[in-house]
Amino acid sequence: MNNLNWDDLKFFLALHETNTVSKAAERLNVNYATVSRRIDRLEDALKLKLFDRTQDGFLSTIEGHVLYEKALEMREKVDALGADLSPETLFNQNTKISMVPFLAEHVVIENLAPLHHRFPKLRFEIETSTRNVNISKLEADIALRLELPEKGESICKKLGDITYVLYGNDYWIDRLEKNENVNVITYSTAFSHLPECQYLIERFGIKSIKLQTDSISAQKKASEAGFGVALIPKIAVDPNLNVYREPAKKISREVWMLTSKKTAHSTAKKLVMDELIKIFQHTLSL
């Protein structure tokens, strides 16, 4: 136990959170052998087996899980202490935000500009995908999701509700008004479980689907090109144009912000979190 050092715990944390030596090495910017050597040294120092080596990667043992919780607390305290004692780097930090593309395109990026102007040292990394990143494994500092996960992370806050409207060109909106058959644009079958997809199928039928794409921007473009009607977030539509109608049945999705305790304790990242709350409160109230 006397040979235990913090550097070895850094390697342990990286391997626990990535499950593979290659990914841990990439995160720490070292070679594969260095990670393996440090883990072996840590297990020797503790006289414990911390990982089971399997075909699926390095899986933590019970002892490994216990050590991870303790080491995680240490890392959070060290990181917080570093920020407190280094005013010159207080805002010179990268904040990684994960979200679906349309939130980045129609809500977040443009509205984060004022914060950037106030604190120009802030750096943003915005990942746009439908993948649910793992906050506890530091895949992102902040995640914006359209549903609350069954297994909650450290901090979850609802930012509001996104409402959806039927969007199309004059021809299809006119047919919609007259209750005539319309062509439909929607997501691919992999996302057919989403409430917006279910509404379109129930309202217009599967045979009405003429184009499928998993991008809101692409659905909007397809509607404007005359492929048919799409159900898209109202925030993506110009309110001054008469090209959308409210569905008879209200369709909405909740927007949640997920973070970790570590993120919430970082002054720079807390600034970003507070700004996102204000952005969504303002945007969704319009």
Task: Return the structural class.
Answer: alpha/beta
Tell how many strands the DSSP assignment holds: 11
Distance N to C terminus: 59 Å
Overall 3D geometry? elongated
User: What's the story with the biggest beta sheet?
Assistant: 9 strands, mixed
Residues in helix, %: 40-55%
**Total of helices:** 10
Could you spell the SSE succession in H and E letters?
HHHEEHEHEEEHEHEHEEEHH
The chain-level mean pLDDT equals 88
Give Rg in angstroms: 24 Å
Instruction: Tell me the strand percentage band.
Output: 15-25%
The unreliable regions are: none
Q: If you had to describe this structure to a student in words, what would you say it looks like?
A:
With 286 residues, this protein is α/β, with parallel strands linked by helices. Helices cover 44% and strands 21% of the residues. It has 10 helices and 11 strands. The strands form 2 sheets. Strands 3, 4, 5, 6, 7, 8, 9, 10 and 11 form a 9-stranded mixed sheet that branches. A two-stranded antiparallel ribbon has the order 1-2. Helix 1 (6-18) packs across helix 3 (32-46), helix 2 (21-28) crosses helix 3 and helix 5 crosses helix 10. The longest helix has 24 residues, at 62-85. The chain is elongated.
Detail the topology: elements first, then pairings:
Blueprint: H1 6-18, H2 21-28, H3 32-46, E1 51-54, E2 57-60, H4 62-85, E3 94-99, H5 101-118, E4 123-128, E5 142-145, E6 155-167, H6 170-177, E7 184-186, H7 195-204, E8 209-212, H8 216-224, E9 229-233, E10 244-245, E11 252-259, H9 261-265, H10 267-283
Parallel strand pairs: 3-4, 3-5, 7-8, 7-9
Antiparallel strand pairs: 1-2, 5-11, 6-9, 6-10, 6-11
Helix pairs in contact: 1-2, 1-3, 1-4, 2-3, 5-10
